[in-house]
Each structure stands twice: as C-alpha cells, then as structure tokens.
Amino acid sequence: MSKEPPPRLSMHLLERVKTLQASFQQTDFAQKRLRPTLKLAQIVFTGGVLVYLIWRLSQIGWGALLGAFPTHPAFYLLSILIFIAVPLCEVITYRLIIGQWVKGGLRIFSRKRVFNEALLNFTGEAYLCERLAAQTHLSTRQALIAIKDNNLVSALLSNSWAIFLVILVLLVGRADVLQTIWQTAPILISLFALVCLILYLIVFRFLSHLTRLPARIVWALAGLHA
Q1: In sequence order, what are the residues at sequence separation of 6 or more whose Cβ sits closer than 8 angstroms to the Cβ of residue 85?
Q2: How far apart are CA 163 and CA 156, in angstroms?
Q3: CB–CB of 128/147 below 8 Å?
Q4: Minimal CA–CA distance to 179: which of 170, 171, 188?
Q5: Which pLDDT score is estimated for 185?
Q6: 3-class DSSP state for residue 88?
Q7: Over its length of 226 residues, how does the chain's per-residue pLDDT go in tens digits?
Q8: 140-171 helix and 215-225 helix, angle to the nearest 10 degrees
Q9: Are 132 and 98 in contact (CB under 8 A)?
Q10: In this structure, are residues 118 and 99 in contact, taking their beta carbons and an 8 Å threshold?
Q11: Per the count of CB atoms within 10 A, which of 126, 137, 151, 197 is most buried?
Q12: What does pTM read for this prediction?
C-alpha cells in the first residue's frame, strides 16, 4: 500500500496551489485593467503625432505646400505603387514564414512602414509584433522570431546587392567613383567596409544557426526581397 503524504505537507501544497491560483487571477485582472490604459495611451500618442505634424506644416504654410505639389497624375500613381510595393511583399513573406495569412495584412504592414518612416526605425516592428501575436497563432516570442527571420534575410540580401553593385562599378571601369568616396575619409570608410564585410560573412556562414526557417523558405524570401 502506498503511503499517504503527511497532513502538514498536504496542507502546505494546497496552500501553495491556492496562492498560485490567486496570483494568476490577479495577473489576469491587472492585464484586463491595463488594456484600456494602453489603448488610451496609443490614441493619445497617435493624436499627439498628428497635431505635431499639422503644427509643423502650418509653419511652412499651407499655400506654399499646395503650390509645391506636382500636377501630373502619374507622379501620384507611381508614389502609391512604390509605397504599397513593400507592404504587399511583406504580406506574402509573412505568409511563408508563419504559415498563414495575416488578417488585414495590407493595412497592418502599411502602418508598420509609416511608423518606421515617420517616427523611429523599428517602431513599426514593435507594432507588427503586437498585431501578429493578437491576430495569429503566434505568441509574442514567436512573433519576434518571425520578424527577426524576415529582417535577417532582407538585410543579408541588401548587403549582397551592395557588394554586387561595387563589383559591377569596378567591372565597368568606374573605379574613380569609389576612389572619390574613399578619399573623403579613407581610414573610416575602410574600417566600416571591413566590419560590414566580416559581419556579412559571419551571417552568411551561420545563417542556418540564426534562423529556423527551411532553406526553401529562405530562398523564397530572398526572391521576394530582391
């Protein structure tokens, strides 16, 4: 026959379970009370940014701004296409990464780009992380990993294009362009180029350890980012 645990131990475990349950309930209650506050802070922050932009534009002058606008419709059509190209690409890239479409993806990724360009770099990624965790099966940690994987492949491809363009400039006989740039600050530019090259080689060599994405997904992402 199995021995029953001592009464004191049983009471201690029961009290411990009740304490943990109370702690979880308090945490859930705090999160529920915190959500409206965070929503209000988001609205106030967005409104503050809008008011600031209106104030800055008013200092320039609305008449001067309207007079400086291009009149040809092709300019606006091209601007819309250029702006929307990146969000459209990201809708597909994140479908490949997380295995499902992000609900309202075009709107979410467009906002992400606005946050990055109008506010600070990577504020868009912070917004995207919250949206991915809320609208997909991903946890916050998994959403961060998905964003990291996408940015890693994008950065690797961007650096590959930079190296390719440098080689292309040398091949077409325009080394004078690079020499002119190098002469502005030879030591600083050389160190910067060396560090970038070393980081590029490290990331390229250990890419399989830095991301859990299958090779076919990585190549698909590279094709989309290209």
Answers
A1: none
A2: 11
A3: yes
A4: 170
A5: 76
A6: helix
A7: 445 444 554 555 556 655 655 554 555 555 566 667 777 887 888 888 888 888 888 888 888 888 888 888 898 899 899 989 989 999 999 999 998 999 888 999 999 998 888 777 788 898 899 899 888 888 888 999 999 999 888 888 888 888 888 788 777 777 777 777 777 777 887 888 788 888 878 877 887 778 888 888 888 888 887 6
A8: 60
A9: yes
A10: no
A11: 126
A12: 0.64
Report how far residue 137's alpha carbon sits from residue 99's, in angstroms, rounded to the nearest whole number.
Answer: 10
- Name the DSSP class of 72: -
Q: What SS3 class is residue 213? A: coil
How far, in Å, CA of 203 to CA of 210, rounded?
8
DSSP 138-185: --HHHHHHHHHHHHHHHHHHHHHHHHHHHHHHHHTT-HHHHHHHHHHS
Task: Retrieve residue 161's tokens.
Answer: 């294009």
CB burial of 63-73 (b: ≥16 within 10 Å; e: otherwise) equals eeeeeeeeeee
Q: What was the pLDDT predicted at 89? A: 92
The two structure tokens encoding residue 52: 């600031």
**Overall size of the chain counted in residues:** 226
Integer Cα distance of 130 and 226 in angstroms: 27
| 124 and 111 Cβ atoms separated by less than 8 Å | yes
In the block, residue with structure tokens 């201690």: 12
For residue 29, which amino acid is it? F
> Which residue, chain included where needed, has tokens 């999160």?
31
Token readout for 21 is: 């349950």
Q: Do residues 151 and 132 make contact, with C-beta atoms less than 8 angstroms apart?
A: no
Tokens found for residue 12: 């201690």
